[in-house]
Structures are given as C-alpha cells and as structure tokens.
Amino acid sequence: MNLRGRNKVSAEFSMSSMTDIVFLLLVFFLLTSPAITPDALDLILPKAKGKTSNVQKASVSITKDGAYYVDKERVSEYSMENELKKVLAGQDEPTIILRAEEGVPIEDAVFVMDIANRNKFKVVLAVRPN
C-alpha cells in the first residue's frame, strides 16, 4: 500500500518579495532623511537640546559681522521688515527660521524677533543638535 502524497513541497525560497521590501524601505528612508537641508548660509549655529523644524517659510540668517540675509539675499537692517513682509505675503501661518551664528550679539536676534512680533510672524530659532 503506497500512502505517500503526490504533492511535493519545494524547499526553495523566492527572494523577489524580499528585494521589493528592501527597495521600498530604501526609498522611504532616502525621502525622509534629514540629509536634505533647506537653502541656507553655512553658519555655525549654537548648540541646544531639541529639534529644528524642517518646515520653512522664510529664513533669516545673521552672521558674526552683523550682516543680515533673507533667504541667501543680503538685506540691510532698514529694509528687513519690508523684505520679510514681501517674502511671507499670502502665507497661512507665516514662519521665520532665525539662524543666528554662534557669537552674534543678542540684540541682533531680538531685532528680528521684534519685527516678527509686530507683524504676527512665528519665529523658530535654528540650532545644531547637542
């Protein structure tokens, strides 16, 4: 009496589904990685614990020598408010990312914060991770 089954189970493993999953994970991590930095000047930011927001509406950079930049474009103190109004016009939640280089006097940062306060702009201070 022959009781062996006719269906034989194959011991082979198909790697095609595994490579699909690895490819999708690779694409996901490439798209969500923090390697994509917003357009900004190369400044040495102060250290702090916390995160910097990646949502960018307008970037204000202040260098050690007192130069102000709005989105890589140098502006004077006197035209700063008008330039920010122009850049943030029509935004639902106007946000300024303040990038003050390490060693910048606090008065320069407060100047930008005062402009933001008068115009109801939200300010986020950019720092480098600790």
TrEMBL record:
Name the source's superkingdom. Answer: Bacteria
Q: Which GO terms describe its biological process?
A: protein transport
Entry keyword Transport? yes
What Pfam families does this protein's entry cite? ExbD
Q: What is its main location?
A: membrane
Q: Which residues lie in coiled coils?
A: none
What residue ranges are annotated as transmembrane?
A: none
- An example Gene Ontology molecular-function term: transmembrane transporter activity
What is its subcellular localisation? Cell membrane
Q: Which keywords belong to this entry?
A: Cell membrane, Membrane, Protein transport, Transmembrane, Transmembrane helix, Transport
Gene3D superfamilies per the UniProt record, alphabetical: 3.30.420.270
Q: Which InterPro entries match?
A: ExbD
Q: How does it sit in the membrane?
A: Single-pass membrane protein; Single-pass type II membrane protein
Q: Does the keyword Lyase apply?
A: no
GO CC terms: plasma membrane
**Family, per the entry?**
Belongs to the ExbD/TolR family.
Output this protein's name.
Biopolymer transporter ExbD
